Amino acid sequence: MLLSVRAVASYELTAETFLCLMVEPPLQGPAHRVEHECLLTSPTTSCNLRRDLYGNPQRHLVAPKGRFSYEFRATVEVVSNPPLPLDAVAHLPQELPAEAMIYTLPSRFCESDLLTRMANDEFRNVEPGGRRVLAIADWVRRHVEYRYGTTDSMTSAFDTATERIGVCRDFAHLVISFCRALDIPARYASGYALGLDPPDFHGFVQVYLSGAWHNIDATIEGVRPALIPIAVGRDAADVAMTTSWRLTTLLEQSVEVREALAL
Q: Fewer CB within 10 Å, N- or C-terminus of the chain?
């Protein structure tokens, strides 16, 4: 499947500002390959593509005071997003590779230690592995109302478990926290999603079962037809589309993901 991706945003900067921009997916991943990409920005004094400690592409820029804007376009070949197999196998902690270990621990927005009792009460009788992860995603989808404008960047998984309302970020944080509370490695993924309504950047989950990472999206029954990961981390704080070291105001933002015509 060939997808066309476009992301545009503008910000007002109160002073010269160092920015980290994470809108460019890796050129190749397990289920995607970037065929063409182009990033345009307003004038900057510095612009370098680096990698963060998780290996994610991260654009470092220094932009002058005033309006800063970017436009990212890409054409990406994507394998259809498969469902998580019911018989996917959970690993014992001592069997986990080093890259998965960190994703069993609590993090800033995924307080799995505070949700351990709730996770055990709800899911301890479900068979470990794929069935348990799907049961967690189904529980979150049925018990948390999806509604824009009800949470903010400080909302945590514990808040969502209490208030039962949120957006994709909050759904993902709660799924991650329940998984980690039950010793299932789970990480947050930011990305582009085909068929998202309204179109936006998307947050979903990747769980480590049967020796591989699998996509889980609790905001929809079934599976998204296609997902392009931009970055992965412990929670949304690690993969923010824009991180600024000065006061910054978002003026506008739009995302478009559609099927492209093969050349």
A: C
- Whether 170 contacts 218, CB under 8 Å: no
On the question of a cis peptide bond just before residue 198, with omega within 30 degrees of 0, the verdict is yes
Please check whether residue 88 lies inside any domain of the structure.
no
CA end-to-end distance (rounded Å), the chain: 12
245 and 231 in a common domain: no
**Alpha-carbon span 104 to 39, nearest angstrom:** 35
Containing domain of residue 147, as a range?
93-238
What tens digit of pLDDT does each residue of 190-240 get?
Answer: 999 999 988 999 999 999 999 999 999 999 998 999 999 999 999 999 999
Number of Cα atoms under 13 Å in the Cβ half of residue 51: 8
Residues 143 and 186 both lie in one domain: yes
Question: What distance in Å separates the CA atoms of residue 67 and residue 69, rounded to the nearest whole number?
Answer: 7
The number of distinct structural domains making up the chain is 2
Other Cβ atoms closer than 10 A to 169 = 23
109-167 residue pLDDT tens: 999 999 999 999 999 999 999 999 999 999 999 999 999 888 888 999 999 999 999 99
The answer to whether the predicted template modeling score (pTM) of the entire model surpasses 0.90 is: yes
CA angle 167, 171, 177 (to 5 degrees): 145
